Amino acid sequence: MKIAVLAGTMALLPFAATAGGYVEPAAPAPAPVAPAPAPIGYDWSGFYGGVQLEYGDVTADLAATGAEAAAGDDALYGVFGGYRFDFGDFVVGGEIDYNLADIDLTTPAGAAAGTLDSVLRAGIEAGYDAGPALIYGTAGLAQATATLAGVEDTDNGYFFGAGVDYLVTDQIVLGAEILQHEFEGFTSTGLGTDLDISATTFGINAAFRF
To answer: Residue 74 contacts by C-beta under 8 Å, 6 or more apart in sequence?
Structure first.
C-alpha cells in the first residue's frame, strides 16, 4: 500500500510543478535586422538654367608689340542654360551664357581707354560625377563687345577653365567657375591699332534643373 501511494505521488510531481511552481521563460526571438538603406543616386542628366555673378580682370595689349595698352577689373552678371548627359562616373554637356559688364579700362598712365561691355560664351563641358558634386573642365567660343576710344567693337575668341557644381536638392544647383578668355584683334578700336584682350573671370552661380 505504501509503495502504491509513493508511486502515485511521484507520478503527480511533474504536473504539480507545472501548475503551481516556477516556469523558466522562453528565450526571446532575435529582432529582425533592418536592411541597410539604398545609396542615394545622383543623375546630372537634363536641362538647366540660371543666373551668375562674376568678377573679371581684363588686360588689353597692343597686338603689334604685346605692350599693355589698358587694364581694368569689375563685375559681370548674366544668365545661362544648357544640357548634360550623365554616363555614370562621366558627365558631358553643352552650355551657352550671356553676361553684361561695365568694366572701365584705363591706360598705364591712368587715362580712360574705354569699357568692356559684354561677353557671350558657348562651350562644352566634361567632368567627373562625384555624387552630389560635379567637377568639370570647360572650353569653347566667346564673343566680347567693348567700347574703346568711343568706338564700339566686337571680337570673337575662345575660353577655357574649370568649375564645380553641387546639388543642394534634386533641382537646385550651386556652383563656382574660373575661366580664361582670349580675344585677338579688336580692329575697329578707334585707337589706330589692333588690341588683344585677355580676361580672367571667377564666378558663382545658381541654377534650376528641369
So the answer is: 55, 56, 101, 102, 103, 104
